[in-house]
């Protein structure tokens, strides 16, 4: 089993998905959907999340699938931006940059995790929003759970104050850098350009502005023996960096979109296949919002309260619970 690769995940299945106009200003990966039928977009996104859940379950991943019927939360399909879980029973809840994303934080999901997994504490940073301080979870940070490093591209969605607090509370070393695409636009979320797995890392090194910092990031990633797979700007734009390693009963898998897989070279795939099985899933509608398969998945690094043989066989309970559309978490 790998500390890096969770064997259970949270997914949100939205009923009214749409590319969020409020996030378009700093998300260069987002596409316009102005001329497309909103009902068709929502229906296609619903089907794509269903397909992701089914593919992961077939691979032996425990999937907790929650519904979202709220039409005011176009980006709720990306729960990793507000939620992270950590070994030892810790949960992080994060401040969101865009106001219409803040209601994505759901108490029913936290209550579910507390019921089914061993949770010692929930550290809620969402109150930092009142001071315009933001850190959008494992979108803003790519976490190396083995070497305890939080790789973070500076952006509107990754404030150094919040990052320092997170790293102090959860025991990570912050490693920040400035990154931009070919047009000079800052990378809005680190997880579109970087994926850290157990035995390899994929990263758009050329997007890191400082050559010296680029070298430092590559050396830090490889210091534990990982192979570092450099991604081109084109591959990053095809969401090749937006992948996540998961632990199945027969070994580790790398979940990514079909579009991302098609952009990888044969040599890059060979490096991945030394330690992971590739699991491509088509999510073209979700990708309109500027995120792909990794953004859709909140990994669960918590210990279950019950043995696997004692758990319910179906997802019916969490799906039923999730139909209760919850408001934002109240901070203390």
TrEMBL record:
SUPFAM superfamilies: Pentein. Residues 307-320 have a biased composition (Basic and acidic residues). One of its GO terms (molecular function) is hydrolase activity. The keyword Hydrolase applies. The keyword Hydrolase applies. Keywords: Hydrolase. Residues 304-332 are annotated as: Disordered. Gene3D superfamilies: L-arginine/glycine Amidinotransferase, Chain A. It comes from the Bacteria. This is Citrulline utilization hydrolase CtlX.
């Amino acid at each position: 089993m790998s500390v890096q690769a969770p064997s259970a995940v949270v997914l949100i299945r939205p009923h009214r998905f749409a590319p969020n106009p409020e996030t378009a200003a700093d998300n260069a990966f987002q596409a316009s959907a102005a001329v497309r039928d909103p009902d068709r977009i929502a229906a296609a996104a619903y089907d794509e999340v269903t397909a992701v859940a089914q593919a992961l379950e077939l691979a032996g991943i425990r999937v907790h699938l929650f519904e979202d019927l709220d039409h005011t939360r176009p980006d709720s399909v990306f729960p990793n931006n507000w939620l992270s879980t950590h070994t030892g029973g810790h949960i992080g809840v994060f401040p969101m940059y865009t106001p219409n994303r803040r209601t994505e934080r759901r108490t029913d999901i936290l209550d579910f995790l507390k019921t089914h997994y061993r949770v010692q504490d929930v550290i809620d940073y969402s109150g930092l929003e009142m001071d315009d301080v933001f850190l959008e979870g494992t979108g803003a940070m790519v976490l190396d759970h083995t070497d305890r490093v939080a790789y973070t591209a500076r952006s509107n969605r990754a404030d150094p104050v919040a990052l320092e607090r997170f790293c102090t509370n959860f025991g990570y070393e912050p490693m920040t850098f400035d990154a931009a695409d070919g047009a000079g636009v800052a990378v809005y979320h680190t997880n579109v350009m970087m994926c850290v797995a157990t035995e390899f890392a994929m990263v758009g090194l050329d997007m890191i502005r400082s050559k010296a910092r680029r070298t430092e990031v590559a050396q830090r990633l490889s210091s534990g023996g990982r192979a570092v797979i450099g991604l081109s700007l084109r591959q990053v734009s095809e969401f090749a960096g937006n992948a996540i390693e998961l632990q199945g009963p027969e070994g580790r898998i790398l979940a990514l979109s079909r579009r991302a897989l098609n952009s990888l070279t044969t040599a890059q795939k060979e490096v991945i296949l030394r330690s992971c099985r590739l699991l491509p899933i088509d999510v073209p509608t979700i990708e309109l919002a500027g995120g792909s398969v990794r953004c859709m998945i909140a990994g669960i690094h918590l210990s279950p309260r019950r043995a696997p043989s004692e758990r319910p066989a179906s997802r019916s309970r969490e799906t039923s619970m999730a139909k209760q559309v919850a408001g934002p978490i109240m901070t203390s």
